[in-house]
């Protein structure tokens, strides 16, 4: 295997509580093959083909706001085309998903709740149905549907 790539990330925050972030990854991970072409053929490895499950392109962007009591954010992730097999005959299309969060510092409501924070997190906000994990056996795992979680944090 041979891998080359580049990753870049950029973020900026304003005095009004807003912050934006973005990151891009280009990953050219390819099979080199071995000196044994019969073995490569038996394993269906084609030298130069993209490594199983590794997208060439990944992009992540987010926008978050943090106030005195409230916090809010949304993020999106693009995962490029991935291959299910070493010969790159079977592929999964690229997919874009979104997540969101909403938080409340309960201590801003009353001093009796000092150090308490409530967070609502939603993963796969649009309930996108897609295949996510690739295991190298020409198959993939179904991604989780929309998932909602509520967290109560207490700082002691």
TrEMBL record:
PROSITE patterns: TONB_DEPENDENT_REC_3
UniProt key word Transmembrane helix: no
Coiled coil: none
Gene Ontology cellular component annotations, sorted alphabetically: cell outer membrane
Keywords: Cell outer membrane, Ion transport, Iron, Iron transport, Membrane, Receptor, Signal, Transmembrane, Transmembrane beta strand, Transport
Topology with respect to the bilayer: Multi-pass membrane protein
Subcellular location: Cell outer membrane
GO MF terms, alphabetically ordered: siderophore uptake transmembrane transporter activity
Main location: membrane
Presence of the UniProt keyword Zinc-finger in the record: no
Gene3D superfamilies attached to this UniProt entry: TonB-dependent receptor, beta-barrel domain (2.40.170.20)
PANTHER family per record: CATECHOLATE SIDEROPHORE RECEPTOR FIU, FERRICHROME IRON RECEPTOR-RELATED
Family affiliation: Belongs to the TonB-dependent receptor family.
Protein name: TonB-dependent outer membrane receptor
């Amino acid at each position: 295997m041979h891998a080359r790539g580049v990753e870049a990330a950029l973020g900026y925050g304003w005095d009004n509580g807003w912050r934006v972030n973005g990151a891009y990854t280009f990953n050219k991970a390819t099979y080199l093959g071995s000196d044994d072409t019969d073995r490569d053929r038996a394993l269906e490895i084609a030298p130069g083909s993209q490594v199983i499950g590794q997208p060439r392109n990944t992009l992540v962007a987010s926008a978050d706001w943090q106030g005195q009591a409230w916090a809010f954010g949304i993020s999106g992730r693009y995962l490029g085309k991935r291959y299910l097999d070493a010969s790159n005959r079977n592929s999964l299309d690229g997919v874009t998903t979104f997540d969101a969060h909403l938080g409340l510092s309960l201590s801003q409501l009353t001093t009796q709740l000092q150090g308490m924070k409530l967070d609502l997190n939603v993963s796969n906000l649009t309930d996108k149905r897609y295949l996510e994990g690739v295991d190298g056996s020409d198959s993939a795992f179904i991604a989780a549907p929309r998932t909602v979680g509520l967290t109560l944090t207490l700082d002691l």
